[in-house]
């Protein structure tokens, strides 16, 4: 396991976006980039999962899919540059121009991270697909790669998305690669919101990691979303939590939380399996 280096504090904005079925993708994108530009002064800004295409709007995904150099990501890149922030742009339904994937579906649930100069810094394709026999497993390929990025304070954050949260082995693998922070965009429904709140704390406690999680609000495709975006300390303490409507949650995260937790209570060193 890689030992974390001492990290400075971090100012984070979680944009808990609410939307319904009435907005077009360009209309929603214009609204979102204005919200991103308003977060100048933060180090990191995070958006929810599949906000352009609709997290539960399965039928629309094939028509709304685009590549990671498409209009949504280009607009996010300009907004990140204008605001001078590292932007986790949530995720899009990705359709690459020249790739179908092993199942021949050609669509992925892909997170995008834009640097403060507008460059595409990283992408992550969601590993665990939600929907059982329908939804993501029916329409999308599964990602396969663990992805870590460096945050402005020097710490290393691992990327995951929504349903991934239910699979603790993913987060164990990420801390073994040096992760001290988990960045988790989601479209988690109100019907299971207490699972979301509990699992965020569980991942923080069991991995002694900082959890930064941005969920969706509003109702779309007949599904009410749960909100409750949150920042969780490695101790399981909820440093900040949003309500259930549209909200920008601005959080100043103190320096050294992960290092202190892992040094004062070194439970990870007792792992046997």
From TrEMBL:
Pfam families listed in its UniProt record: CN_hydrolase
Record CDD domains: nitrilase_5
Entry-linked PROSITE patterns: CN_HYDROLASE, UPF0012
CN hydrolase domain span: 10-255
Keywords (A to Z) from UniProt: Hydrolase
Cross-referenced PANTHER family: DEAMINATED GLUTATHIONE AMIDASE (PTHR23088:SF27), NITRILASE-RELATED (PTHR23088)
Similarity-based family: Belongs to the carbon-nitrogen hydrolase superfamily. NIT1/NIT2 family.
Name the record gives this protein: Carbon-nitrogen family hydrolase
Species assigned in the record: Luteipulveratus flavus
């Amino acid at each position: 396991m890689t030992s974390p280096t001492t990290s400075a504090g971090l100012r984070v904005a979680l944009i808990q976006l609410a939307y319904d079925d009435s907005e077009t993708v360009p209309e929603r994108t214009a609204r979102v980039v204005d919200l991103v530009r308003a977060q100048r002064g933060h180090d990191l800004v995070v958006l929810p999962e599949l906000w352009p295409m609709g997290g539960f709007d399965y039928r629309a995904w094939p028509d709304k899919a685009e590549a990671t150099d498409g209009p949504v990501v280009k607009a996010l890149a300009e907004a990140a540059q204008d605001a001078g922030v590292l932007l986790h742009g949530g995720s899009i339904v990705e359709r690459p121009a020249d790739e179908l994937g092993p199942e021949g579906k050609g669509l992925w649930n892909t997170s995008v991270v834009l640097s403060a100069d507008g460059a595409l810094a990283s992408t992550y394709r969601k590993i665990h697909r939600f929907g059982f026999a329908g939804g993501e497993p029916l329409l999308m390929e599964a990602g396969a790669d663990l992805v870590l990025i460096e945050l402005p304070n020097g710490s290393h954050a691992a990327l995951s998305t929504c349903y991934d949260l239910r699979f603790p082995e993913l987060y164990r693998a990420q801390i073994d690669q040096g992760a001290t922070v988990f960045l988790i965009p989601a479209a988690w429904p109100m019907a299971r919101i207490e699972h979301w709140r509990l699992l965020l704390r569980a991942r923080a406690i069991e991995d002694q990691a900082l959890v930064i999680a941005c969920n969706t609000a509003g109702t779309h495709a007949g599904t009410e979303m749960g909100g409750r975006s949150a920042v969780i300390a490695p101790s399981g303490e909820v440093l900040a939590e949003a309500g259930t409507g549209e909200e920008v949650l601005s959080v100043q995260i103190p320096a050294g939380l992960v290092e202190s937790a892992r040094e004062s209570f070194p439970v990870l060193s007792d792992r046997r399996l």
